[in-house]
Amino acid sequence: MNQVHFSPGQRPVYQQLSTQVNQYFQQQNIAKSGDRRLFRKAVVILLLFSSSYAALLLLPSPWSLIAWFIHGIATALVGFNVMHDGAHESFSGSRRLNRLAALTFNLIGSNRFYWAQKHNRNHHSFTNVDDVDEDIDALGLFRMSPHQRRFWFHRYQHIYVWLLYTLTSLFWFFALDYKAYFRQKIAQRGFSQRLSLTDHVEFWASKLLYLLVYIALPLSLSDTSTVITGFLLMHAVLGFLFAVVFQLAHIVDQAEFPQPDANGAMSDEWAAHQLRTTVDFATQNRFLTWALGGLNFQVEHHLFPRVSHVHYPALHQLLQASCSAQGHPIRSYPSLWAALKGHYCHLHQLGRYD
């Protein structure tokens, strides 16, 4: 395949939308980064994260298993609300604080550099494009795109997918991270830069630290069966939440899966591509917006990833009319249940027919 790219030239959709957004922040006299709302939430989530970790170490079984379960939820909340904004440099106006927030991904098992390549560079640039966006590559276990090969067992994928989602973070942290590290590429796209000595040290040091924190230390304080059960339970919760939340934005029946032409060129400009491949859900649900770090406003996030998620509800209201006027209305499900149904129907349809 030729290098996938968007054709150079005018970008009328993005130019109009970005002008509106810039004017909004200027008129409101506020920064695009996070504010007190985000910082307060981060403190609450990090307290839940640290206290649940202390509880899984100190409580006897079976109470420690409840703590492992809660810690899985807390870890997902850290990823959604702290790491994600930090990785996009939108958590704060401080580069140092953004880097610190992004490094929480190392703390919860993965790697900051890998995430920047996989998510920021590939997924955000070429959403739902085969061989570039690793988020739609399930190694043949699921058929997420109509351009992927269909196997006989995909007929049942809308049923078994929910069980396999519980393995997401385990596979991610203990297989995909290493695969990307040694291949120096995500899917079929090479890294944008070579890893420095610091990046190499950070990768191996954080992987070792994770094993010490979540395996060695708990084993020194509890029996093996409790620790292994708790560790797998934590990852089942974390993996399921990670998988479902990110899938509901793109792997649904309202999203499209554009492909490049023979020369690798995409047919739309980048912003139009995002509006075709990304879907919001439950935008009126304030609790979900708080807990998911605005990931139910994925359209706004994909268009303006350097804007903190605390501003997405306002941007949603601001951009709806403009997007519709340009022929690319914001696609959205009214509730979490409707989005889950859209994901289920998409997998069911792709499993039955080419």
Automatic annotation (TrEMBL):
<feature type="transmembrane region" description="Helical">
    <location>
        <begin position="227"/>
        <end position="249"/>
    </location>
</feature>
<feature type="transmembrane region" description="Helical">
    <location>
        <begin position="203"/>
        <end position="221"/>
    </location>
</feature>
<dbReference type="GO" id="GO:0008610">
    <property type="term" value="P:lipid biosynthetic process"/>
</dbReference>
<dbReference type="GO" id="GO:0016020">
    <property type="term" value="C:membrane"/>
</dbReference>
<keyword id="KW-1133">Transmembrane helix</keyword>
<keyword id="KW-0812">Transmembrane</keyword>
<feature type="domain" description="Fatty acid desaturase">
    <location>
        <begin position="63"/>
        <end position="333"/>
    </location>
</feature>
<feature type="transmembrane region" description="Helical">
    <location>
        <begin position="159"/>
        <end position="182"/>
    </location>
</feature>
<dbReference type="Pfam" id="PF00487">
    <property type="entry name" value="FA_desaturase"/>
</dbReference>
<dbReference type="InterPro" id="IPR012171">
    <property type="entry name" value="Fatty_acid_desaturase"/>
</dbReference>
<feature type="transmembrane region" description="Helical">
    <location>
        <begin position="42"/>
        <end position="59"/>
    </location>
</feature>
<dbReference type="InterPro" id="IPR005804">
    <property type="entry name" value="FA_desaturase_dom"/>
</dbReference>
<feature type="transmembrane region" description="Helical">
    <location>
        <begin position="65"/>
        <end position="84"/>
    </location>
</feature>
<protein>
    <submittedName>
        <fullName>Acyl-CoA desaturase</fullName>
    </submittedName>
</protein>
<dbReference type="GO" id="GO:0016717">
    <property type="term" value="F:oxidoreductase activity, acting on paired donors, with oxidation of a pair of donors resulting in the reduction of molecular oxygen to two molecules of water"/>
</dbReference>
<keyword id="KW-0472">Membrane</keyword>
